[in-house]
Structures are given as structure tokens and as C-alpha cells.
Amino acid sequence: MESIETIRKMLSSSNIKVILRCQEFVDERAHLERIRGESAERRANIILSTLGASSAFLVFMASIFFANPSKVGWLVVILYAASSLWISRSVWYCIKSIRTQSRYRVTVESIFEVQGKTEIDTVKQLLSDKIWELQYSIQPNTERLFYVQRAQRALMVFICILLLLGLTVIVQNYFSFKPNSCVLFVVLAIFIIFWFLGDYLIEKNGIWNH
Is-contact 6 111, C-beta < 8 A? Predict the structure, then answer.
């Protein structure tokens, strides 16, 4: 990251029209970057609200499923544990998204530094401040969107597991289906592999890039 002084030296043009055009460009980029940050925060809040309702539903399901533990199979236990872990993972990514913010800000006191300067020097000074602040906001916003996407994926996996859990309960209750140890092992292996490698494989192959 370049310092304000370095950026100021790089603004070498003596044409005020060129400097003002650069300022317009920086203002446009700063506006778009602010929209990116607001979008990440808004999406994280929506996901957190959904997760709150989903958590209450999980507690309700636990009171029903485990009221009579002898009738609950191991497959239901594995799926319920998996759904709980994935919803926790989504919450964790949302928290990381909210915590990831730029702490670098240009203060209003910078206007006192331009008193007595010419118009072009004043514009250059304020423009260098804007560029410095902008370059420190790009990476945090990128990280926030990155974690929001991971939270969305975790939420989708949670919903899929929840649907599978409901289907499993229906099949066990109405068709007396009892999965053997091989089925339980396969389900557990798939869960473990996707837990540790799912995000990596999806991001590496560009499957979920917005």
C-alpha cells in the first residue's frame, strides 16, 4: 500500500482539468466500493436472520426426534449433527464477514493541511487522501464478500441436510427402513470430505464466483 506522500508525488500533472478528471474517477470507484461493502453487510444480516430462525427449528426438531431415543436411528443422529455443524459454520462466516472492515479513514482535520495552498495543490492533496483511503477499503470488502459467499454455501448445505433428514425420518417411520453400517459409513465419509474440502474445491474450480 502506498503512503499518502507517495501518492501525492505520483500526481505529477500540472493540468487542473486532468487532476479533476482523476478525482471524478476516484469518486466513482469509491462509490462502487462503498456499495460492495454495504452489499456484503446486508447479505450477512439476511443470512444471520435466516440462521436465527433455523436454529429455533433445530431445537424444535431435537425435542421431537430425541423424545424417544430408542426410536432414533444412527443415520438421523449423523444428519442432525451435520446440520448443526453446518449452521454453526455459516454463523461463523457471517461473524467473520462483519468483523472484516477497514480501519483506515481520512479524518476531516486533513482540510486544515491545505489552507494557504493553491487550487491544484489542494485538489492533489485531497485526491491523494481519497486514493489512500480507497486502497485500504478494497481488500476488506473483498474478504467480506468472500466470507458471505461461504456463509451462503454453508446455509444451502444446511438446508439440503435438513431436507434429507426429514426424508430419512419419513422413510424410517413409514417403511421401517434401517440403514446398515455401510450406509452410515458412506454418509459420514461424504460429510467429512465435504466439510474439509468442499469450499476449497468449489472456489478452486470457480463454481461459485459472483
Answer: no
What pTM value is reported for the model? Answer: 0.83
92-103 b/e (C-beta count within 10 Å ≥ 16 → b): ebbebbbebebe
User: How many angstroms separate the Cα of 5 from the Cα of each of 2, 68, 136, 144?
Assistant: 8, 70, 15, 29
Identify which of 136, 115, 104, 130 has the alpha carbon closest to the alpha carbon of residue 8: 130
Yes or no: say if 75 and 173 are a contact pair by the CB < 8 Å rule: no
Q: How far is CA 6 from CA 27, 36, 112, 132, 147, in A?
A: 19, 27, 20, 10, 32
Interval 81-102: pLDDT, tens = 999 999 999 999 999 998 876 6
Dist. CA 125–CA 110, nearest whole Å: 9
The mean of the pLDDT values for the chain is 86
